[in-house]
Amino acid sequence: MGKFLKSLVLVFLTLVVYGQDNNLPEDFRQQNLTQFNSSLFNPTFSFDRNLPRSLSIWSRWQWQSIDADPTSLFVNYTQKLSAQSSGGLGFFQNNTGVFLNTGAILNYAFAIPLGDESNLIFGANVFAYQQELADNQVTSPIPLDANNFIAQFAPGLRIQVKDFGMAMTIENALDYNFTDNERQGAERVLAASVSNRFPIFLFNEISYIRPLAYVRAVPNSDAQYGLTALFSNPKFWLQGGYNSYYGAAAGAGVTLFKKLSLGAVMEFGLDDAIKDEDPTFEIIASYHFGKQTFEEKEKKEEKSEEERLQEAEEKRRLAEAEKERQRIEEARLLEQARQDSIALARAAALAAVKKQNRLDSIAKVEREKEVTVQPNEKYEEVVSADGLEPGFYLIANVFGTKKYFENFMRTLQTKGLEPKSFYRSLNGYNYVYLKRYNSIQEARVARNSGLNGQYKDALWIFRVRGD
Asked: Among residues 352, 41, 16, which one has the least CA distance to residue 171?
């Protein structure tokens, strides 16, 4: 009964605090987070939209000037944990009008492949925060705890089929007040969204447009519905949106040195109830530490001791058979040389064998030689890649869309180049390369010289070590 009365008092206080102003919903007001820190919108977005590995800061000033304290603040670090999972850790502060919540967020997302470019992604945000009254002047007929320590669990789910995705989350599925040692009785914040990503080739670079439609059920407020649209380019981005409660928003940002992103958003109320309020400002800053790559791990079944012994015996038998084959082959060559009585030919053959062995040894040493990556050098290395010959490939570009891949190949050919390509089934991309080299020194010289001045854009090195 006491918990019910406290809930009624909280509703009453909210009405009193905003009796002459408009009511501020209890959520984070995160509807404009289209890429950086978007895991606050849905925990599964840390898997791809947070641009892991990155450190991002988001501040929002709700209906007030930017020289005041922000009503929402979120600082978050995100990175990939494996090819199929990601995680993040962040700090947040959120003013709901009645309460000021300050604490930490732990994020985790995991993708289960369903088929060709399809994933079922599970995610969760775990909040732990200190809650205190935002206004010390508020009085209540029933004593309210001025300070509470609360833990909150927010699960999310997304189905991603190529560029199309559907997602949902419960932002406060579980709440527990450690101060009172009891579950919170707050109503749940539910959100669902649908989006699609449209790649486009613009300014000689791959860009994309991603519209997203959503609906959110927020306690003590009408359901919110809205639409956001993001145009993202490696050098800049533009975004716009509409929310049925907060109004229209527009923003832009730039990416400097391919690492540092800075942007801002301004939001204007359109409804008669809030159109006279001051505009809302948001500022975003993000530092990208670099793309992470993971080797695809083969799933190995557990084998019995008997099976391991059989495999070892089979390997031994094959090794002996290979030695015998080599012995017979060498004997045949010697016999042929003897029968032909051409000592010079035999000597030349033996010299050729020795030379080839020496070349093979040199090639093997070069393949197994470790490469020290230079500062700011873009370099990727794999053991094997769909049957590619070992060596160092000078990569000009990578494409996931066939049309842009074919256009780029034709463009290089018209410039007098002879580009080649290979397809990696691991990530579904076509790699366009200008030449293959046997050593890292040769590849670096060609890269630094732009293939002797024939290619003006950026090049990078992709190495196949070989088994």
From this structure: 41
Residue 333, in any domain of the structure: yes
Same domain, yes or no, for 177 and 87?
Answer: yes
The neighbouring-strand residues paired with 253 are 237, 263
Assess whether 362 and 383 both reside in one domain.
no
Domain boundaries, position 71:
2-288
Instruction: Give the 3-state secondary structure of residue 5.
Output: helix
CATH code of the domain containing 140: 2.40.160.40
Q: What is the 3-state secondary structure (H, E, C) of 275-334?
A: CCCCCEEEEEEEEECCCCCCCCCCCCCCCCHHHHHHHHHHHHHHHHHHHHHHHHHHHHHH
Do 246 and 330 share a structural domain?
no
Among residues 135, 169, 136, which one has the least CA distance to residue 154? 169
C-alpha closest to that of 83 among 427, 339, 446, 409? 427
Q: Give the other-Cβ count within 10 Å of 104's Cβ.
A: 13
Distances (CA, A) of 121 to 24, 32, 64, 124: 32, 22, 37, 10
Identify whether residues 50 and 131 lie together within a single domain: yes
Closest CA to 34 of 265, 253, 229, 206: 229
Residue 241 has pLDDT above 90, yes or no: yes
**Given pLDDT bands bounded at 50, 70 and 90, which one contains residue 277?**
confident
What is the distance between the alpha carbons of residues 227 and 211, in angstroms, rounded to a whole number? Answer: 7
Please indicate, yes or no, whether the overall pTM of this predicted structure exceeds 0.70.
no
The type of residue at 12 is F
Q: Tell me if residue 180 falls in helix, strand or coil.
A: coil
Higher pLDDT, 165 or 67: 165
Q: Is residue 303 part of a domain?
A: no
231 and 273 part of one domain = yes
Q: What is the pLDDT of residue 19?
A: 39
The count of domains in the chain is 3
Q: 3-class DSSP state for residue 14?
A: helix
Cβ atoms < 10 Å from Cβ of 12: 13
Domain co-membership, 98 together with 195: yes
Check whether residue 335 and residue 392 sit in a common domain: no
pLDDT in tens, 279-317: 999 999 999 998 887 765 544 445 566 777 778 878 888
Same domain, 340 and 392: no
**Which residue in 90, 97, 103 sits closest to 50, CA to CA?**
90
Tell me, rounded to whole angstroms, the distance of Cα 120 from its chain centroid: 15
Q: Report helix, strand or coil for 392.
A: strand
d(CA 293, CA 82): 8
